[in-house]
Design brief:
Protein name: Pentapeptide repeat-containing protein
Oligomer: single chain
Number of helices: 2
Shape: elongated
Organism: Streptomyces hygroscopicus
InterPro entries: 5peptide_repeat, PA_immunity-related
Helix content: under 10%
Pfam families: Pentapeptide, Pentapeptide_4
CATH architecture of one domain: 3 Solenoid
Number of strands: 19
Order of helices and strands: EEHEEEEEEEEEEEEEEEEEH
Strand content: 35-45%
Largest sheet: 14 strands, mixed
Length: 227
């Protein structure tokens, strides 16, 4: 059974993210010239286990890069963009990203614990098997984004825009949704226990056990008690 919170009771098809464009060949990273620095423009580089830790960089542009086991722990990024990039088993713990965009990117098996992504854009992004608990996505613009089998307990999407966003098999226990704007969003077989601001998910489609969990959260916020 599918429950829909959409005006008029109609649902819209959720688009799937586009895959990153493939670069013909990637050269190994040379950290002397391929590090995260202000105004850096880096294309077609492969980072393997590269430490990008506790840095501060602004206006970085990275295109067609691959990151394998790279660590961004504690790094602060401002007004930067990653396009057509692939991230595998990377560590984004405690990253502070303001006005940072991911365009046509895939992120697999990576950790975002305690990271903060604010006022940026995710467009055509696919995240799979990631730990994002907790993670801050306040006022983010999410367009054509898929979260699959991610641990997202306590994730904060307050004030975010969701357009063609899918959550599949994700643990969203205690996630916060107040004042978010939903164009088209779908939750499939997700855990939605004790979420906050659930009324702001009007327009979303919920399938699976999360239907009852979300309904109970909405009732709790409305001051309804069950005995």
């Amino acid at each position: 059974m599918t429950q829909t919170f959409r005006r008029g009771g109609l649902t819209s098809r959720v688009k799937a993210p586009s895959a990153p464009k493939a670069f013909p060949a990637l050269r190994p990273a040379d950290m002397a010239r391929d590090g995260l620095e202000d105004d850096a423009v880096i294309r077609g580089v492969r980072y393997e286990g590269s430490p990008l830790v506790a840095l501060t960089a602004e206006a970085v542009e990275m295109e067609g890069c691959a990151f394998d086991g790279s660590r961004f722990t504690g790094t602060r990024l401002l007004r930067s963009q990653f396009s057509d990039c692939r991230f595998t088993t990377c560590d984004f713990a405690q990253v502070d990203a303001h006005d940072v965009s991911l365009i046509r990117c895939t992120v697999n098996g990576s950790r975002f614990t305690g990271s903060s992504w604010r006022s940026g854009t995710f467009r055509d992004v696919r995240m799979e098997n990631c730990v994002i608990a907790p993670g801050l996505f306040r006022h983010m613009r999410l367009h054509t984004v898929a979260f699959t089998d991610c641990k997202m307990a306590g994730a904060d999407f307050q004030g975010a825009e969701l357009h063609h966003v899918t959550f599949e098999g994700c643990d969203l226990t205690g996630a916060q949704w107040a004042n978010c704007q939903v164009g088209t969003a779908r939750f499939e077989n997700c855990t939605l226990t004790d979420v906050g601001g659930g009324a702001s998910l009007k327009g979303a489609t919920v399938q699976g056990p999360g239907q009852i969990e979300l309904a109970l959260s909405l009732a709790r916020e409305a001051g309804i008690h069950f005995e």
